[in-house]
Amino acid sequence: MKKIICTILVMAGILVQVSAQQKTAGTDQVFKADSTVTTIHDVTIRGQKIPYKAMAGTLPVWDENGKTIAGLFFTYYERTDVKDRASRPLVISFNGGPGSASVWMHLAYTGPRILKIDDEGYPVQPYGYKENPHSILDVADIVYVDPVNTGFSRITDKDTPKSKFFGVMADIKYLAEWINTFVSRNNRWASPKYLIGESYGTTRVSGLARELQESQWMYLNGVVLVSPTDLGIERGVATDAALRLPYYAATAWYHKKLPTELQQKDLVAMLPEVESFTMNELIPAINKGSMLSDAEKKPIAAKMARYSGLSENVILQHNLDVPINFFWKELLRDKGFTVGRLDSRYLGIDRKDAGEKPDFNAELSSWLHSFTPPINMYLREELKYRTDFKYNMFGPVHPWDRSNDQTAEDLRKAMAANPYLHVLVQSGYYDGACDYFNAKYNMWQMDPGGRMKDRMSWEGYRSGHMMYLRKEDLSASNEHIRQFILKSLPKPGQAAKYEVTR
């Protein structure tokens, strides 16, 4: 009898959603900031059938007076055969941009459905989606959140200033309030909670870790940083220039542009040599500027050429500081190709081989090709979310106020105040936008005393910004998150406290 009632309620929810969101001929679009539809599904993960419900809809953002100023679209997956919801982890997932919807990790990484793409992540037709046998839904419930103006999320009060949403600190503040509402409505206060963010989403979730603690009194068990930004950590010109070299080396290795003795090594066996040179020789050399004599500069340039696949002459012309846009254009210039910004395995073709930077981002064009049809198909057809609003893969959120970005320090303070809080960092070796070595550098600078290094871990993958698009890395990266969640859950009776070791 319960199953029949549930089905009727699901169908009723669908009917309400259609009438609320879908316009008819001759009427205006009306955005509902508080409206959901629930459907029932299952997925086989690691050989086990997992039943779950999916809730797709909107939840309000209120101002300080309780007035609705926006509605955020979300998709929430909850495993339905779990009896003890209090001990069931909840993962709250954000992508980045700023201005990007949550579609990327939702439909290609941790969710129960993933794109139909080839094993390396390239688009195939016909477009579609399939079960994700690697989803983390077996160990945690997941909610994917679209910030204002992304996905189906919209501002409802046109008089509200955009500065309320579009900035590092504004974004963190209103999203923390929204998370409180979501957790309260879905009775998840007792659950262990995790944030996961990708790209600019790592800035977002690092800031949220502290904001949730200090303004919402909500304490987390973990934060997962996928392809992290600099998190507000100042590099300086010389350090910023030098830290790119290990990424250059990884990309050159992939495209077979390194000398034979390096090319014959495995990628992860080759990179430590480059990393050591970067930290111990290159940063000091660039810092010297004009004080660096020609006799000192030439061997440094020679080593950079050896590791980067670029000519020594080109490196000297740039005074050891090779811009990343130029690298993407120069590395395969002799072959008539550019390499992708977010994933340098992808190749582009420019109008002309001359120039200082590529005409377009080859990888992003490919990904939009792969993602846009399936997310629109999936939300409307499988999750029954009926609307004529456009799903914004990237929405209008500019100008974005980037001031006061100290999110690495926010995350450090949250960890210091919460002994339960752990951090996992995931990076693709071929990501040129948020490169893997800068992600390591973040960890070193965030915790310079090394007091929390036992609660911080890093994983690298042989792909780019969205490492999970490569089939082998999809399996590995999800498993790393799964194990991170399981290991960071406190043992029964384990208190959140520091102890002096003797």
The CATH superfamily of the largest domain is identified as Alpha/Beta hydrolase fold, catalytic domain
Helix tally equals: 15
Largest sheet: 10 strands, mixed
Task: Name the beta content range.
Answer: 15-25%
Description of the molecule:
The chain has 502 residues and is α/β, with parallel strands linked by helices. The chain folds into two domains: 2-232 and 377-488, Alpha/Beta hydrolase fold, catalytic domain (Rossmann fold), CATH 3.40.50; 237-360, no CATH class. 38% of the residues lie in helices and 17% in strands. It contains 15 helices and 14 strands.
What's a concise summary of this model?
The chain is of the alpha/beta class.
Structure characteristics:
single chain, about 500 residues, alpha/beta, 2 domains, ten-stranded mixed beta sheet, 15 helices, 14 strands, globular, carboxypeptidase activity, protease
List the helices and strands and how they pair.
Layout: H1 2-21, E1 35-45, E2 48-62, E3 68-79, E4 90-94, H2 103-106, E5 113-115, E6 129-131, E7 141-146, E8 154-155, H3 168-185, E9 193-198, H4 200-215, E10 222-226, H5 237-242, H6 245-254, H7 260-263, H8 267-288, H9 294-308, H10 312-317, H11 324-330, E11 338-339, E12 347-348, H12 362-382, H13 407-417, E13 422-428, H14 436-446, E14 456-461, H15 471-488
Parallel strand pairs: 4-7, 4-9, 9-10, 10-13, 13-14
Antiparallel strand pairs: 1-2, 2-3, 3-7, 3-8, 5-6, 11-12
Keywords: Carboxypeptidase, Glycoprotein, Hydrolase, Protease, Signal
Signal peptide: 1-22
Pfam family, one: Peptidase_S10
